[in-house]
Amino acid sequence: MSPRPRKKRNSGLPANLYPNGRAYKYRRPDTGTWHGMGTDKAKAIAAANQLNGLLMAGGDLVTQVMGDSMTLNAFLDYYEAEVLPPRQLARATLDLYAVRLRQIRAALGAQDIGQITIGMVSTFLDGLTPRASNQARAYLVDVFNYAAAKGLVADNPPEATIPRIDNKTRKRHTVAGVRKIYAEAEPWLQNAIDLALLTAQRREDITTMRFDDIRDGALYVAQHKTRRATNAAWIRLPLTPQLKALIARCRDDVPSPFLVHRIPDRKVKSGLHWTQVANRYLTRAFKEARDAANPYPDWDPEEQPGFHELRALSLHLYKKAGKDGQKLAGHASQKMTKNYEADHEEVVWTEAVADLDLSQITG
After folding, report:
1. Alpha-carbon torsion angle 327, 332, 338, 344, nearest 10
2. Taking the model in full, what pTM does it have?
3. Strand ranges across the sheet with 17-20
C-alpha cells in the first residue's frame, strides 16, 4: 500500500499514528475512529505497526479512492446539509453562517480535518475582525464537536483558542441624524425606516412584513429571532391612524406581497420574491444613504450606526415619551412562558400599540 506522504511533523511515525500534544493517537483506517496510544513513543509505534498490519491488508484500492481521512470541506458539506436544518434557524442567522463558513472553507477547507491544529485555527481567526473572529470560532467549535462525535477527530482545536475582546463601538442614532439620512433615502427605504421607528422591529422582521399579515384591524408580526422562545415574539399591532397611513404609503403600483419592496435592477434567482428586499441589501442601501447624508461627520467609520440601530433609537424615543416599548420589542418578562409546545398549534398574540409620533423624526 502507498499511504499519503507524512507531514514533516509526523515523519518517523507509521501511517495512521499522529502526535497528540505529548502523547500519540491512532486513527483506524477502516472506521476513521481515534484511539489514544499513550506517551511512550516506542510503544505507540509498535502498536500502530501491528494495527496497520491487521487493518490495512488488502485495503490498497479503498485507500487510493477514499484516502485515510476527510477534508474539512467534506465534513462541512455534511454539517450544512444535516446539522443546521433541524435547528430551524432564522434566515438572517443562516446568512451569517453562510458568510463565516465560506471564510472557513477558503482558509482551512482543503485540510484533513484530523490534521487541523490550534495554530492553523488561530492564524485564520487572527485575520478577522474581533466580532467575525468570535463568530467563526463559535462555528468551528460546533463543527469539531460534531466531527468528534463521528470519530473523525480526537480533540477540538478551535476550543483551545481564546475569544477576542469585542468592544462594540457603534454609536446610537440621533433624531437629527436620521432626519438627514431619510432625506437621502429612496421611497422604499423611507418606508423601511418609518416602519423600523414606528414598530421597533428588527431588520429581518421589517423585510418580511406582508400585506396579508394585516387582518382584523391589525398588523401581525411573528418575530424571527425569538418566536420559538417566548410568547412575546408574536405581536399584534392595531392599525392606528399613523400605522394605517404608513401601510397606505407602502402600497404602490408594484405588485408585491411585501410592505417593503422595490423593483430590482435585474431579476436574480435568490429564493426571494422578485420584489422583496434582502436583509443585506437593506443594510447596504441604508449605509449608502447615510454616507451620502454624512449626518455624523465627527464620528469614525466604525462608530457610524446602521439600520439595526434604528430599533434602539425607536425604543429610546418610546421610553422618552413615557410609553412601554417592552411589548413592541418582544422582550420577555420572567413570567412569560413558551408560546407553544411541540404539539400545541395555538398562538397567543401579544397586543402592542405602535404610536410613536414620526412627524417629529422623519416628518
Report:
1. 10
2. 0.60
3. 17-20, 23-27, 34-36
